[in-house]
Structure formats: C-alpha cells, structure tokens
Amino acid sequence: MTDNPSYSDLKKQNLALSMESQRCKVAEEAFYRQNAYLKALHETSLILIDKIDKEELLENILERATSITGTEHGFFYLLEPGAEQMQMRVGMGFFKSQLGRLVTIGQGMGGQVWKTEAPILVDDYKCWPSRISDKVLDGLRSVVGIPLKSERQVLGVIGLAHVNVGKRFSHDDITVLEQFAALSLIAIEKARLYADVRWELAERERAEAILRDSERRYRTLLESSPDPIVVYDMQGVATYVNPAFEQTFGLSRDELLGKQIDFVPKENWPETKAAIELMLSGKKINLFETRRLTKDGRTLDVQLSSTLYHDHDGRPAGNIVTLRDISTRKRTEQELQKYHDHLEELVAERTTELAKEVDERKRAEKALRKREKELQAQSHHLEEVNTALRVLLKQREEDKKELGEIVLRNVKDLVNPYLQKVIGGRLDTRQKTLMRILETNLNNIISPFINKLNSSLVTLTPMEIRVADLVKEGKTNKEMAELLQVSKNTVLFHRYNIRNKLGIKNKQVNLRSHLMTFGK
Description:
Layout: H1 7-50, H2 54-69, E1 73-79, E2 86-92, E3 102-103, H3 108-116, E4 120-122, E5 143-149, E6 154-161, H4 171-224, E7 229-233, E8 238-241, H5 243-249, H6 253-256, H7 269-280, E9 285-293, E10 299-310, E11 316-325, H8 327-423, H9 429-446, H10 450-456, H11 462-472, H12 477-484, H13 488-501, H14 511-516
Antiparallel strand pairs: 1-2, 1-6, 2-3, 4-5, 5-6, 7-8, 7-11, 9-10, 10-11
C-alpha cells in the first residue's frame, strides 16, 4: 500500500477546494454588498441631518436605493393628511413620466401595499392580477413595494422596478428597502416638523406684527386723545400718562411716571376710595363726577371712567383711567341755573300782571256781552228791514224785466221794420254798411246779455269797440279802413291792442270767433 493519494482522492480534494472558494466568493460579495448597503444608509442618514426639503430628501433616498439594488426605476407614493388617494410625488427612470398619478387603496402596487400594509414582490407585473390596466405600464417586469408605515397608518409607498426580462429583486433587496423606508419616514416626519415649526414661526411673527400694529394704533389713540388718560398698576403707581393729562394738570411725565399721583382733594377722597373698591371688584366706573387738583392749585370738576386690564394669564394687572375736564360745563350749568331762577322770577311777575289783565278782560267781556245783546236787538231790527228791502228789490227786478220786454217789443215793432226799409232802399255801399252797423249796435243794446258783452270789452277804447264790431261783422281790414276813414295800419294797430287786452296775443285763436262768443 502506498502513501501517495489516488486520483479520485485528488479530484475530491479539488472539488472541495472549488466549493470552498465559491462559498468564499459568495460570502465576499455578500460582505461587499452589505458594506455598500451600510455605506448608502450611513450617507443617507447624514443627508437627513443637512437637508430639510421633503421632496429633495425622498429623491436622494430613492436615488441611493435604486443604485444599491441595481435598477434605475423607482417611485414614491405619498398620502396627504385626510386624503383618500395616494399621489406619486417622486419618480425616477420609467416612473418619471408617471409623476402625479393617483391610486386608491387596493389599486396597483401602491394601492395593494397601502391595503396590506406589508411588502409585496411581483416577478412579472404584466401578469399580476392586481395590476393597473394601463398599456403604459406594460413595460414593467419585476416590481417590489415597501410601505412607509408609522405607528398609526401607512403614509406612503416606496417602490423599485426592472424593465428587463430575467432581472428580479431578492428578499435581501426587500430588507434593504425596508431600511430605506424607515429613513423615508424620518425624512417625512422631519419635513412635517419643519413645516409645523415654520408655520408656527410665521403665525408667531404674524401675531407679533398684529400686536405691534395694535399697540401702535392704541398708543396713537391714547396720545391723540383730547381727554387726560393715566394707566396705573395694581399698586396705584402711574405707568403711563398721555399729553392731554400733562397739559390739563400741568404735570410732566417725569413727575408722574413711577409714582402715585397726589391730586385728589381731601373732601373727595371718600367717594374716590369707594369708586376704587368698586372697580377692583370687577365693576366698570363710567362717567363718575368728582374733582381733581392741578399743579398750580386749581380745582377741576372732572368726569372719570375707569376699568381694569389683565395680563396674559388673565390676572388683573392695573387699571386705565380716562378723565374729562367738565369745569366749563359746570360753570355753564351754574349760569344756566341762575338764568333759570331769574326767569322764574320774571314768570312770577308776569303771572301777577296776567292775573290783573285777566280781571280787566273779564270786565271787558261782561261789557261786550251787554253790548252783544244790544247788537242782537239791532240785528233783529235790521233783519226785518232787509226782508222788506228784498221784497222791494224783487219787485224792482220784475219791473226791470217788464221794461226790457217793452223796449224789445217796441224796437221790434216800431224801429226794425223802418230800419229794414231804409237798408233795402237806394243806398250806396258805405251807407248800407253804416246802417248794418246801426242795426248791430241796436241789437246789442236790446240784448238781455249786453252786460256780459260790456263786462268783457270794458277795457276797450271807443275806437277799439268800433273795430271789434266790424271784425264781428266779418269785414276785412281794407273795408274797415274805408268805413272808419283811417289807414289800414291804424286798423291793424287797433286789432293788435284788442288781442292784447283780451289775452289772446301770440295765440292761435281767431279774433272774430273769439268776439262772437261774447254775444252768446
């Protein structure tokens, strides 16, 4: 038997050495890969310290996760507070064109991870039953999704994908992605805290600006107030006085601030003390009238209002007192009272005088009543006389009517027949015209309505009356000029005066038609 190993033994030893070498190589690759994971996680953790922007942090985390797992395609879905859909906020490679995509719970990789709250690994997305029916996504192959889960809920999903056939993610990749997901939660929480702090700072700055503006506005109000204003602390020490206070009481701020102001007259201390106690009990002092002293010893009548103010904890911190100098008003009221008393005296004197006048009036009324009785007797007598006169007047009217009928009948029977014979005789045109005028005037004289005609034409001159009669007869201006032996312009002048006196000047009224109405 020889000590040299056989061929089979050498073969077994070589195989064992080869397997050991392979294990060492796998272990070495795992070591380097683990080292790369740790390095990436360490660098990402350092970035979390320096960066604040949430989107930038998530992009950096996704970039390192894709680099470690050997892909270029990754995404982040994020859920906003109170939302019912997740939105893809960060995308790389294939998913860069998918930014803004929304998924509901259970929809696609993001929705399924959201629903199960656990990692999901899909070898071929195109054949996966829960895929989103979108041809754009048909290019995906192996896809892995990890939930970003806080203590209460899923805040988002981190996912990676391969687009080449044959490339797949391992469970080691899931482990690494879970560590990146933990870093992502830290980034989201940090961004949220930073946003809260920034919002709180902005609110605080806004509140401080409002307070400064309010303080400036109230200080301006106090400084410009025409009424004296003083602010006390709870010990009665003056902490603020406005210019009106200095001017009214002749005291400067240096003399007043940090001290108790001694300007209450002794006789007014009891009522002032009672008002202070009432104010300290929480009641507001409003328009309380009292008196205060000035630096030069004058005593002013003042109207005082006071109220407590409180600190941030709601405890009384002091009181604000507003005073109004009513000395002038008081003097005016005194003068008015004197004037009122004087008026009362005058009223009393006048009342006495009126009583005398009333007595005299009563005597006069008694005399008037006596005179009234006498007048009533005279009135009765006059009534009887009037009755007699009315009877006489009625008789006179009847006589007048009878006389008119006699005159009308005599003219009709005794004058008109002969007048018609003369007109029908051999007369020239001028004579006939004169006779027609004579006939017209005679008819006017005997007309029972002659008073109406005369009253209407009472303001006309004799010549104007003659022209008016010829107008009523329908004569032209030329005919009237021949009959009256005047010029045509004279006739026009009289016609103008007639229209003016009758009130129809510059009116579309026919003069003849208007004159005819007076005879109706």
